[in-house]
Amino acid sequence: MIQTTDLTNENRLLATLPKSEYKRLGPSMKRVQLTFGEVLYEPGDIIKFVYFPEDSIVSLLSSMSARSTLEVGMVGSEGMAGLSVFMGVNSSSTRAIVQGSGSAMRLASSAVRYESNRLSSLHRLMHRYSHSFLAQVSQSSACNRFHSVNTRLARWLMMTSDRLGSDEFRLTQEFMSNMLGVRREGVNKAAGMLQTDKMIRYSRGMITILDRDLLEDSACQCYAIIKAESDAYLN
Amino acid sequence: MIQTTDLTNENRLLATLPKSEYKRLGPSMKRVQLTFGEVLYEPGDIIKFVYFPEDSIVSLLSSMSARSTLEVGMVGSEGMAGLSVFMGVNSSSTRAIVQGSGSAMRLASSAVRYESNRLSSLHRLMHRYSHSFLAQVSQSSACNRFHSVNTRLARWLMMTSDRLGSDEFRLTQEFMSNMLGVRREGVNKAAGMLQTDKMIRYSRGMITILDRDLLEDSACQCYAIIKAESDAYLN
DNA sequence: TCTGATCTGTGTGTTGTCGCACAGACAGTC
DNA sequence: GACTGTCTGTGCGACAACACACAGATCAGA
What is the pLDDT of residues B74-87, one digit of tens each? Predict the structure, then answer.
């Protein structure tokens, strides 16, 4: 497995906090293992915990029907799942599902509510992350409207790879179709092209990125735009 | 012109503030007239003012290219244009354009930065609005992916009508095509159907909603979902 | 080694939207 | 009343994605 990012294996949002604030959160925080497919919360659920992914990924999904689901946002070590809590609302309108197994720091929602107004750096960071996340959702929205399945799949694979810090991961076409909001057959076709062009290799749910540069080239500009936004807010 | 909502002609977010906080904002605030087509800020611009629409509407657009633009969020009396400022970022990734002429309260960004941490009700409200807005953007994103031009146009007309507090307004097919992210011809076809079914009437940029109930029925569920979210946060 | 479950490949026909091209309708103005 | 610009209507070919239907490949476990 090739490490492609300088992953320090910690959540970058938390890592940016001054020590004093981090310590204050300590007692309410716990490192947990998130496993693929785990649902952290459903739309309307009371959110008990928020999650700061380390090498895991959480996807936020909007579903129109059982058949039609779409990822509206992806959360990795750059962010947090459960922004609603920070915004003073105890439930979300999206489903949060673990898209990549790995560890995350889990924080009780009550602690978020209690501390986020007292810890100024945390507060400021969360605000900036909210902005970054909103920008991501906005960009994806336009991307989903205008770009083809091919380019969107390439973008999505790049984003996933970045957050996992790996070029190899398990994901079926079925799963990706739920993320991109297209049929499995569409993913098959798009993935087939990427494979023909030697950018990726895949078999029975195991995907390997063979050529990141080529893959990035076939992704739309949205990838770079979202990445810039995600990285920038951490300074 | 038929008034269909109990429009009190003031921004509902501001109206929810306690008097003391509203007074604090007073000196920095000014009622301005927004005119159709006016651009409040472009992506990347430093945002000097935020706007609390009264009977005006501000659309937030994401553009992939000159040809391809999409409305990612709509702001009326329930909200504010310029959320980024509240989130501690002085520019936005979207373009803010006036979609419906009318009045708005304009507040200097510096005042937002200075006061939003001091005025607790304002802060709390803005947080809750941020959540509501994020929910709107997420829902629209899925809607744009899964629903037909017909239903999306119906939804969009309903949302516009709600915010203007009127059943009659000026909007060309060309303009709507930029909002919905489809070609003008597509809007023509969809609008033609709505007109055939006697839900709306239109001519040279003047649209009249003839039957709100029917129009709401042909809009997708997204309309009701977004409306509920927008109304709920104000309690 | 057989069996069932899962994952992937692909074929056919349909539909929605696009891209382009142009004609008609209407309003303002000189 | 003629001219110009704007807005609207429509026709046609192209194409991406859809819906459905199966067949083939691979793996895990009995």
Answer: 999 999 999 999 99
